[in-house]
Amino acid sequence: MPESKSKFLIPAVGAAVVVAGSIAAYTYFKGPSGGSLDALGSAKVVPSTALMATYITTDSQAWAKLQQFGTPEAQKLVAKGLENFNKQMFSESNVSYEKDIKPWAGSVMIAVLPPNPVKPAQFNVPSGASNVPKNLQQEPNILIVVGIKDKLSALNFANKLKSQKGVKFQESDYQGQKIIETTENGKPTYSVVLNNSHLVLAPEKQAVEKAIDTFKGQSSFASKEGASSILNKGVDVKNSLAQIYVPDYAGMVQQLAAASPQAKQLPSQTLTQLKQIKSVAAGVGVDDAGVRVKAIANLDPQLNKFQYQSSPGNIVGQFPIDTFALISGNGISRSWKALVEQSKDYPEMKQALEQARGQVKIANIDLDKDIFGWMNGEFAFGAIPSNQGVLASVGFGGALVFDTSDRKTAEATLTKLDTLAKIQQINVANRNIGGKDVTEWQIPRQGALLSHGWLDQDTVFVALGGPIANAVADRKNQSLDNSDAFKAVTGSLQKPNGGYFYLDMDKTKTVPLINSFISSDPKTITILSSIRGFGITATSPDKSTSELEMLLALKPAAK
Questions:
Q1: Buried b (16+ CB within 10 A) or exposed e, 388-415
Q2: Helix or strand run (H / E) with residue 206
Q3: What is the structure's pLDDT at 139?
């Protein structure tokens, strides 16, 4: 959220709570709330025009679950960051989140409303200008709904804020509801308390008025087609921290794209692709393994061209135990055919595919048949540490492993590639590794640049670097699927699935490699050292549903 919009929260919260009553109504304020504090209850005061909504819980037990993870150094760093944030947020007041806000603030829903059209008169357009924008837009509106779980604590906080300097309050009436305009440093923000149970805030008055209209009976986000079902069902994660709801995915993208300063009308082909996804719901939670994210997309089976097929997962066993990154899946040939079919409706994509076909055709290779045609089984790409030969400068190499039912075509393709390498004056030689015949492309004084060979009758590998070929073809240690790290990161992910993305952050060489590409900042290194690994997988129970699951596996805190 932009800084200018986040700073309106504190004074606006207090100002709006004043409307809830007075200290003389002690008994009433200690009574039950007037509405539900769950996601559905909050969504009932959000206008149906909302593009998306995020529901964040303030349940201390759920957030406290995070404290069971992390090194002492990382926990101190996070605690210091929260302390600094608290000081910056309340730097101009004597307000404390723990003492003044936490006791009464319930869960929070943040909704994104469509942007308001901006009239040309609001811009300094030179007179006589010929190119005046016809549909000027501004950034989307933010509407925040805070559940009030303890009205007396909320009122005490409001009274405390009334004594703050530099904050001006002004009341106005709309539909019988009191809207508080809060001005701080010349910037007005608006808030209202609805049914003594929900505090609604926004940087735009119109957004608050729309929430009041919704409260008075106009259609809400909770009743919107596609929203009610995902609000009721949500996403099943333990100790849920946040839930995200997008009832009309294509509509959201359209409106947000139109609001961009460089707004261009989306091509009809792009809209067709977007409409494959009807709605999306996602949840973020904490369990014994770490932070878990699950997302569920409802698809249009008539528009969804991708044919999902689960992956057996056996390919992981072809990689050595020290593999620190892996991407696996199934049926590249099917995905390629779907892409080719889809390209018929997209001239630019079709042109790119034709260019790719033309480039490999020079080497007498048919891209559809010789490259992708035989890749009809499981596949995986793994990154394996090594500091020898051509890999000395980067510290790791890679291996591609494919299962195929068309060995003949695969062998013919590899033979064509070997011939092309010889034409380029690369030495192509054969070597026996662990009883397997391996072909190498050798570079003087640096060893093998690339190797390929067959691990069994149906499984072929291509390795970058001689040491990687040794690790894959002649494994003397256990395979990746037997490693504790791989089990910890992927073992709790949903099965069956379409494959994995796996990253082991616990390997001694992984963090230094990441730091060399991202950052060597000590704080970054401290945070990374608390992460055990990262895993992603996807599945599709039927043609109308796609599910994604991600796990940020964290190291348990030292006891």
A1: ebbbeeeebbbbbbbbbebeebbeebbe
A2: helix 205-215
A3: 63
Amino acid at position 206, single letter: Q
* Partner residues linked to 297 by β-bridges: 280, 546
Q: Residue 498: which region, alpha, beta or left (left: phi > 0; alpha: psi -120 to 50)? A: alpha
Chain centroid offset of residue 87 CA: 29
Tens-place pLDDT, residues 71-114: 677 777 767 766 666 666 555 556 677 777 788 888 889 999 98
What is the tens place of the pLDDT at every residue in 8-34?
Answer: 566 666 666 655 443 334 334 454 444
DSSP assignment of 520-559: --HHHHHHHTTEEEEEEEEEEEETTEEEEEEEEEEPBPP-
Question: Rounded to whole angstroms, how far apart are CA atoms 412 and 80?
Answer: 60
pTM for the model: 0.84
Task: Output the CA–CA distances (angstroms, integers) from residue 110 to 215, 252, 309, 367, in the order listed.
Answer: 16, 15, 36, 48
Closest CA to 274 of 295, 293, 246, 294: 246
Query: C-alpha dihedral over 404, 409, 414, 416, to 10 degrees?
Result: -160
Query: Are 400 and 460 contacting, i.e. CB atoms less than 8 angstroms apart?
Result: no
3-state secondary structure of 189: strand
User: What pLDDT, in 10s, does the model give residues 338-362?
Assistant: 889 888 878 888 999 999 999 998 8
Q: Where in 415-493 does DSSP place strands (E)?
A: 427-433, 436-443, 447-456, 459-464
Q: Report yes or no: 282 and 296 within 8 Å, Cβ to Cβ.
A: yes
